[in-house]
Amino acid sequence: MHRSAPSSVIALIGLGILVVGLAIQGCEMRTTPTQTVRDSIERHGGERFERLDLEFDFRGDAYRVVRADGRFLYERKYRQDGASIRDWMANEGVGREVEGQRVELDASQRASLESTVNSVVYFALLPFRLLDPAARHRDLGEAEIDGEPYQVVEVTFLEEGGGRDWEDRFVYWFHRNDHTLDFMAYRFDTGEGGTRFRRAVNRRQVGGLLLQDWENLTADPAIEDIARYPEWLGSPELRLVSMVEMEEVRVGDPPDWDALFPTPDEAPESDPSAGVQVVLSTDRFIYPPGGEMRIRHLLVNRLAQPTTLRFPTAQRYDLLILEGDEVIHRWSEDRAFAQVEGELTLGGGEEGPAHQELLEAPRDPGDYRLRVVVTTGDGPLQAELPFRVEAP
Length: 392
Hints:
Mean pLDDT: 83
Strand content: over 45%
Order of helices and strands: HHEEEEEEHEEEEEEEEHEEEEEEEEEE
CATH architecture of the largest domain: Clam
Helix content: 10-25%
Structural class: mainly beta
Number of helices: 4
CATH topology of the largest domain: outer membrane lipoprotein receptor (LolB), chain A
Radius of gyration: 30 Å
């Protein structure tokens, strides 16, 4: 026979449910480290990071960050040895232009360019880059700094997609209530290696982004665990290394990509050389009088389809040194070339063979230009680079 539960048991069961309910309500659900990062990205600009044209000056160089629809351009403009230089990274690769002329980079130069440009952009866009596919987040718990509550998150990177410094370790302190990124620390192995601790300063809203500068501090060599850096605040061992400041900041909408990377769709049949570029590079921008100039140049087909260049003689190129508009040296002057026709076919996006030559720099100090001229049956192709001769 079925018996009903006593009223006292029912009361205890109800009380138990009430106690469990109160316990659940009294226990805060911990936010995952990835969600903490997402909340901070939303606080600092959210979707604005995905579509923007950001320009700023950093330590005398001009930077530009363009992002839109999965495409990106990171650009740095500066002057070196009196020449105007533009370095860039994009979906299309990396490149360098000197006085508007594309120059070839070897593997070490490309690595240096990527490291310099990417690191500046990385810190400028924080915390946005912390959701890169190669990023891995680990919860380091909670902390209190100057009486404010923080969620502490460690970020490391997978080797694949993590960049050249993928082994670096980062720790970030996100304000639990405001979701701002207020502090960060990292250990790096490039150069002599070391650690840094950064504190956000000069926070401001610009064009839909919450941007900030950083005090760059260190307690090397005393520090061991970078997650304990906040304990060193106020200690004389924690010293200021530098200021990381973005100046002349402008934030706008991304421009038309064709204007950033103009490339002809196809070459007219009457001019096979259209879309072919001469890439010229030198080992230096300043030479001593009569010094040795190491010169390298090649042809690049910027079109998607193959193109064939025809040459009226065996001469493929000439090298000129100019002072003002006057040619003061011509490489081919004491050379003879067979009077036979030739041709060179370059596939879509293909580079031609590289040519290397040695020239003697002028003996008089001053500003000069080096010009390479490739004479085809359809007209000349050329590129120039400025250089200077200075007495020791």
